[in-house]
TrEMBL record:
Keyword vocabulary terms for this entry: DNA-binding, Transcription, Transcription regulation
Family to which the UniProt record says this protein belongs: Belongs to the BlaI transcriptional regulatory family.
Alphabetized Gene3D superfamilies for the sequence: Penicillinase repressor domain, Winged helix-like DNA-binding domain superfamily/Winged helix DNA-binding domain
SUPFAM superfamilies per record: Winged helix' DNA-binding domain
Lineage of the organism: Bacteria, Pseudomonadati, Spirochaetota, Spirochaetia, Spirochaetales
Protein name in the entry: BlaI/MecI/CopY family transcriptional regulator
Pfam families xrefs: Penicillinase_R (PF03965)
Family matches, as InterPro entries: BlaI_family (IPR005650), WH-like_DNA-bd_sf (IPR036388), WH_DNA-bd_sf (IPR036390)
GO biological process, one term: negative regulation of DNA-templated transcription
UniProt GO molecular function: DNA binding
Length: 132
């Protein structure tokens, strides 16, 4: 699994594109531009033309595609969340922790205020990985 992770291609997804993808992943259905805005989670909604232009850029990057519905388009992701999270994780590991996985894991545990149940689940996950 670690070898597969290292071989994964780098996917560049800036913050606004990631927020758009999160809306599309969460809704799990093609959405028009206004549908993306209507399902925006941040307090400040982006403008219609901002989202439209970003979707056009995302299509060029093969992150989304669209279906034509009359005169409008409905957009859907062409990449899954796991692919993006692996790429983001790998970049964070390299950029911030110089590839030191233990340092990154320690920072995660220290900085995320995990509950006892979450820590227990994490320990179980690590044990399963160790036993493979």
């Amino acid at each position: 699994m670690v070898k597969d992770f290292i071989k994964m291609k780098k996917i560049n997804v800036p913050e606004l594109e990631l927020k758009i993808l999160n809306v599309l992943w969460r809704k799990n259905e093609p959405l028009k531009v206004q549908g993306i805005i209507d399902n925006w989670l941040d307090d400040k909604e982006p403008g219609y033309t901002t989202i439209l232009k970003k979707l056009q850029i995302m299509e060029e990057k093969n992150l989304v595609n669209h279906h034509k519905n009359g005169r409008s388009y409905s957009y859907f992701p062409t990449i899954n969340k796991d692919e993006v999270s692996h790429s983001k994780f790998k970049k964070l590991l390299g950029d911030l922790f110089s590839g030191n996985k233990l340092e990154m894991a320690a920072a995660f545990v220290k900085d995320t205020d995990l509950t006892k149940d979450e820590l227990s689940t994490l320990i179980e996950m690590l044990q399963k990985e160790k036993d493979k």
